[in-house]
Every structure is written in structure tokens, then in C-alpha cells.
């Protein structure tokens, strides 16, 4: 088991903090978790996953889309050609592609690459259709939160739908990610912020018209996704001044 030495970084309370209310009846989706407890490994230990066919298919699809923007791989194992029907990308190689996308690019350029990759995954006109089907309502926010749990566990790990309070109204449009797989495997604050948080927020808010705010917790590697909450600007977001992990 790989052991991570993590320096705890105090994350300032965000000005847009949202009240999260978990209920005892909620169950965390533990798809792919290979730990004996069925839970993510404790902080400082890397969680073991048992990815199936569909998980590897998603990893391969995303990785191949990102390879177009990635710098050349350095090792021979990374440069080995993979056929489309050979789901040869595991999660580590998917994260490696993400790292190579970051090389030589500014924060804005990294986020633009993710936007292009996400758009390439959709059929023409999909964002406009999404806006028609899911206008920014409470129902749309709750529906997308419910979809996130089963369809994106391969990317972020186990999660659960939670109740949130937005502008004084309670709704079940929050997603609590217990220990983000992407952050855990990359060990990089910059990858979390520039390759996940901001481009995902921007994609849903601007392209789909459904506001989304993501609040990563760099002390325990958890994350809150809140559909229906307008995200703050980069300058007003606490993660804009978040330091890197030092020993991870």
C-alpha cells in the first residue's frame, strides 16, 4: 500500500459556505472500493479500487481525448500504443495524462483544455438541449446531483447526495465526495483546482446553464459539489491562494 505523507493545510472558511445537512438514511455509493471496510482508506493511505469494465472504459475514453493535448510521454510503458478496443488505461495512467496536459500551460490554458475535452464527449448541440431539459430549477439541481453519484464514482470515488441550503431553501442538490480519488492519486492541489474544480464549475454554469460550486477540503481530501449554487470568481475563491502539498 502506498503511504502518503500529507501536511495538513488549514483551509479558510469560504465566504460562500453552504449549510450541508446529512441524514442518517443516506448511503454512500462504494462502487469499486476494494478496501475490506468498503470505505476509502484513512488519510495518509491510498485507497484500493477494483475497477470493472465500465470504469476502465470511461478512463480510456477520457484519457484518449486528453492525449491529444498532452506532452509526449517519457517512459516506454507510457508510450505503448493502445487500441481503441483495448481498455488499457487504468486510473494511474489517466492521472498521468492529466499531468502531461498541464505541462507548459497556464492555469487558463489548462482549464480550456478540460472544456474542449468535455465538449468533445457530447454530440453537437448538446449544451443547448441540456439547457432546455434542465433549466436552473431546484428539480434540475437535485436530478443532476442524483446522477453524479452513480455515473462519476470512477472519477472521484464514493459519494452521496446530501441536503443543502441555498438562499434559505433546503434541497437535496449537494454531493459529498468522501475522499476524492483524483486528488488522492495526483497529490496535487493544482490538478484539483485547474483540471477539475474550475473547469467543471465553468462548464456546468456557462455551457449547461446550471450553476455548480465545488468546495474541496484539502485537510481530508473530501469535496462538496453543490448544484444550483453560483460559484465565486477565481479571485474571490479561497482556493486561489491555496498552497501546494509539501510532502505527498
UniProtKB/TrEMBL annotation:
GO molecular function terms noted in the UniProt entry: iron ion binding
Source organism superkingdom: Eukaryota
Domain Beta-carotene isomerase D27-like C-terminal per the UniProt entry, residue ranges: 154-235
Protein name: Beta-carotene isomerase D27-like C-terminal domain-containing protein
Amino acid at each position: 500500500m502506498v503511504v502518503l505523507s500529507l501536511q495538513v493545510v488549514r483551509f479558510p472558511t469560504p465566504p460562500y459556505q453552504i449549510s450541508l445537512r446529512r441524514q442518517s438514511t443516506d448511503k454512500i455509493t462504494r462502487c469499486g472500493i476494494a478496501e475490506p471496510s468498503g470505505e476509502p482508506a484513512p488519510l495518509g493511505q491510498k485507497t484500493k479500487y477494483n475497477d470493472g469494465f465500465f470504469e476502465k472504459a470511461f478512463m480510456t475514453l477520457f484519457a484518449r481525448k486528453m492525449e491529444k493535448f498532452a506532452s509526449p510521454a517519457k517512459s516506454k510503458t507510457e508510450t505503448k500504443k493502445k487500441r481503441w478496443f483495448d481498455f488499457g488505461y487504468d486510473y494511474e495512467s489517466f492521472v498521468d495524462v492529466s499531468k502531461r496536459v498541464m505541462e507548459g500551460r497556464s492555469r487558463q490554458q489548462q482549464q480550456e483544455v478540460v472544456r474542449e475535452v468535455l465538449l468533445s464527449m457530447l454530440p453537437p448541440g448538446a449544451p443547448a438541449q441540456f439547457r432546455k431539459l434542465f433549466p436552473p430549477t431546484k428539480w434540475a439541481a437535485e436530478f443532476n446531483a442524483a446522477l453524479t453519484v452513480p455515473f462519476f464514482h470512477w472519477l472521484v470515488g464514493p459519494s452521496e447526495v446530501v441536503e443543502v441550503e441555498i438562499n434559505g431553501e433546503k434541497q437535496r442538490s449537494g454531493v459529498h465526495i468522501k475522499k476524492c480519488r483524483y486528488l488522492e492519486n495526483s497529490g496535487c492541489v493544482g490538478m484539483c483546482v485547474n483540471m477539475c474544480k474550475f473547469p467543471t464549475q465553468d462548464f456546468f454554469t456557462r455551457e449547461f446553464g446550471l450553476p455548480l460550486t465545488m468546495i474541496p477540503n484539502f485537510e481530508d481530501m473530501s469535496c462538496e459539489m453543490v448544484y444550483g449554487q453560483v460559484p465565486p470568481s477565481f479571485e474571490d475563491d479561497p482556493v486561489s491562494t491555496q498552497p501546494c502539498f509539501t510532502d505527498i
